[in-house]
TrEMBL record:
It is a multi-pass membrane protein. Pfam families: MENTAL. It comes from Equus caballus. Keywords: Membrane, Transmembrane, Transmembrane helix. This is MLN64 N-terminal domain-like protein-like protein. Its main location: membrane. One of its GO terms (biological process) is vesicle tethering to endoplasmic reticulum. The keyword Signal does not apply. The chain crosses the membrane at residues 55-76, 96-116, 123-143, 149-166. It comes from the Eukaryota.
Amino acid sequence: MNPLPQDMENALTGSQSSHASLRDVHSINPTQLMARIESYEGREKKGISDVRRTFCLFVTFDLLFVTLLWIIELNVNGGIENTLEKEVVQYDYYSSYFDIFLLAVFRFKVLILAYAVCRLRHWWAIALTTAVTSAFLLAKVILSKLFSQGAFGYVLPIISFILAWIETWFLDFKVLPQEAEEENRLLIVQDASERAALIPGGLSDGQFYSPPESEAGSEEAEEKQDTEKPLLDL
């Protein structure tokens, strides 16, 4: 037998796949589809996903943790009031930690505004805050005299640098991919429910019927009755 042409093989393959997809859609339980759609719609009504909420909490933790370290530094170096006046009112780029605190405030405001208020689904805001934080901290470490002021000269810049990059990693590898995956699942479930709604349901009880007896079966019955009559007469 000659092999089938390539076009005919492609047509057969396409028809088989289409029949398989129709069988899959027909086998989906509409109740399960509606439950999934309602669950996804419930998440949308929340306004913010769980993973994005976790990211915003971490951004808040970044601000509070840097603020706590800065307050401890103020208290260690001669009292909060005196050191606060020295670092804020008499600000000196080469010896003050106040700018590191302002950098944490900058990250908090930009990221909360972008990803909690505006609910962006792009990485440009986190890229901006991380780039500004990294450049500022590198310049301050190189030019300032923080290392001569004790342990906080190392702790505050390193902690700020690490937290900024953890935020970038968490958004880029957790928040955005997971939200995109949930959105794709919702679209797939909605599409499957729409296709399942277009397919008519199963046959009802009234639609089942028994096929009529064939003519061959009726003729055999008549012949059997004819043979039984003479026996009864005897």
